[in-house]
């Protein structure tokens, strides 16, 4: 590699790290500029393999650019601009940093050419997005973020296990698995991907987390994790038959739960599950049309789901409420937000002239082409439910209908700040543009497109479904009134399981640990310190006593001997002569 | 002697010259700077030794020879091999750090202090370079008086007791060393150390000479039970004195074993090795236990030195390449780590005027930089992987294991005890207990103190992560030594 290949995520990471250093006056401009730079970089990417780094035994590939990754990179870059614009009013730069690191993770995962790099950015996504939940700073936020994080880290573990098993045998490069005969490693990796894509039964984290996140954070959250997982499924598991029923079940599951919801953002979150179900089914079908459909749907979905979350987020931002039972009749106060949310709702329902019309139907068409009739029909059924709750229920019960607002809510309600409106306008215009001018989207898709959405048959079929759904809505409107309910979903199991685990840790395990600690303290520690003090005393009294005692003894002896010299010459001479005599005797006796 | 620059003589006499110059300087500030600059210059000069040393040869390099007392066959012979090179480098590195540590600590009689320090440095380098026994003995004794003065004049409350104890104890050992030297001269007719190696002395002669050497070096190391002078000397000495004592003086005993006992009296070594090994293990355990019982910080580190030197003698008397390499490694590491710990204790004493552990609790909050340094040095002292001592201790234990698994099994609790007292020290000082005294007035390290500790921190981590830095110098010398200690033993017998 002769020159340094600039990874788009690098721009975002550096941008995030340098954000606190930017002076306050320039911050808005900086926030606007960095996503634009990233998008420009994405546009300038050449196809090929770049950014290869030697790390220990492995070659990490940071930049694998081809048609499949380019379409996802394009929309992720675009969404980053829109999301940052939407959040421009935030003074809390931590939230911007978290969002950008999150996008950096997503872009990095899409560009990853080998599994290790994929895993690195996968975890970056999880660890940075949890802050978007924690920054909401409500009493329930720490727990919500922790649930999200734990679920994602568990998924990461499964992914890593799969990677480790797979890569020892088959090498590290991230490509298609053998979908006809999937190994244990493939299933583990699949579980990791499916968890991020929020496929039931691994989906309960999504409504839980996305409704607890900040209004601006949800806009980011809804786009990146799930669609990066869809990309990963497209890359690794295209054509896996298991994914078709999973996708269809997902589509219906999300719709059913969405209809039951009272909180508008939870409704939208459940609906993400439904829409991603389409994409997962498309990946499962695996034909070129289906993969094209999955990519197109992801592209369009990011935009209109983002738009919907922006609309409901604006309502939450201004009124502080997101439940239908606390809202209603807000048309007088925030008409523009209504318009944008309506555009989003129409797009998601695949209304003609909007983006969903040209993307969702590709998957359904692919299903029919493969003679998967039940899949095709059930997916169409899901779009009925989609229009019902997102196209009709959300706009109606927030902006029209019975006014359930408390006085303080009504006081606060107003149009959101200019940047939120600007972001929503941009997204709305894009939704319409994509719907009307199809080559914009179709030219980005990985495979050549021979699909024509604006056929008489397609138009009539869609309009029939949608108009009769609208009729049904207004006829059954009494039954669809919002009620303050909580729907029990599969997360009940792990929430209760978490409580059980905590009880286990607090009672039995703690009791045992405490017991062992007491044992250690009484037996081991006391005897050790007892031995230590004994050794210290031994050293002081016995050894030192001997040494010092010896020295004292010699001193004492010297002291005694000193007394022998009292200064009197006669005594000294007498002693000397006696000593001499003694010596002579000794020598004479020795010689003899 | 070739026409090359007599660098070893320079390293010995330059400190003496600097001491002479220091004796003439009256102004205290100038004196301190002069001593610092001269010790730094000498350290720089010793780095050229490192550069010019050929690590592939086992013999003595940078040799110098001149006639000194011809009728007694005493020559002025100097030379370095891998082991002594490391010791010389350790000495010259520690000296400027001692000067920095004494900057404000020594307020009275600064001139005499600096002169003592410099004379000691010259003498210590001389001990490690000398290849003639009389020269060696001269330098050996020359070290004692400045050290006794350091303790006795600038020390703590019981300094006279400690200084006298140190002096008389070590001198008593030196007397036996002299007897051994003379016995060897009588037997072989030369004082030249390389010539005395590998000769076929009789078995009983070797045993007696070994015993004589042993007493002297055992007191110096110190090996249990000849160790009681060490706590007293360390506690009462000023910071610089403790550092020099721990870093260099203790190593001289171990160096003596390596340079003299093993190659000159290999059979004697073989006979007494089992006893020395068990004494080493006793030192490890005993040092660990007694350190656990201490509340005086300096005494704690002093007893930890007893334990660490136990590891060194364990490695030496394992009599295999791994053990001896580990022992020399530990000599360097202990010099760095324990020197650093004494420097840290000295910094605490300068601030708090106490060495009691309980009175220092919770200082980490006020002195985070200090706590970081202390933390790394404590971890090094307990031989945490990634630090320098881990490599040395691992090699020593592995060498000892090759000799006897029981030794390592019995010594293992000593490793645990080392962790216990070091971590307790770190926890108490850095993190505190439940009732911490008020340390509001205590200041964190200033630049001078950071500069004193930083090179040692760097070495701890560098040697720990790249041990080849030290190991590369050792291998041929250690291999040669092992050969001398084991093969030559077969020759003796008469």
Biggest β-sheet: strands ordered side by side in the sheet of chain A: 1-2
Question: What's the total helix number of chain A?
Answer: 21
Write the element-wise H/E pattern of chain A from the N-terminal end onward: HHEEHHHHHHHHHHHHHHHHHHH
Largest sheet of chain B: 2 strands, antiparallel
Number of strands of chain B: 2
Describe the structure.
The complex is a heterodimer of chains A (592) and B (494). Chain A contains 21 helices and 2 strands. Chain A has helices spanning 8-18, 24-43, 67-86, 93-111, 115-134, 141-170, 184-196, 205-212, 215-237, 243-260, 264-285, 288-319, 335-348, 355-369, 373-399, 407-412, 418-436, 439-442, 456-475, 491-563, 569-591, and strands at residues 48-55, 58-65. In chain A, strands 1-2 form a two-stranded antiparallel sheet. Chain A is elongated and about 145 Å long. The model of chain A has no long low-confidence stretch (mean pLDDT 90). Chain B has 494 residues and is mainly alpha-helical. The A-B interface holds A 528-529, 531-533, 535-536, 539, 543-544, 547-548, 551 and B 165, 168-169, 225, 227-229, 231, 286, 289-294, 417, 420.
List the helices and strands and how they pair.
The complex is a heterodimer of chains A (592) and B (494).
Chain A: H1 8-18, H2 24-43, E1 48-55, E2 58-65, H3 67-86, H4 93-111, H5 115-134, H6 141-170, H7 184-196, H8 205-212, H9 215-237, H10 243-260, H11 264-285, H12 288-319, H13 335-348, H14 355-369, H15 373-399, H16 407-412, H17 418-436, H18 439-442, H19 456-475, H20 491-563, H21 569-591
Helix pairs in contact in A: 1-2, 1-4, 2-3, 3-4, 3-9, 3-12, 3-17, 4-5, 4-9, 5-6, 5-9, 6-7, 6-8, 7-9, 8-11, 9-11, 9-12, 10-11, 10-15, 11-12, 11-14, 11-15, 12-13, 12-14, 12-17, 13-15, 13-17, 14-15, 14-17, 15-19
Chain B: H1 7-24, H2 28-52, E1 61-69, E2 74-80, H3 82-101, H4 110-129, H5 133-154, H6 159-188, H7 193-196, H8 203-220, H9 229-236, H10 239-264, H11 266-293, H12 297-317, H13 321-352, H14 368-381, H15 388-403, H16 405-431, H17 447-465, H18 468-491
Antiparallel strand pairs in B: 1-2
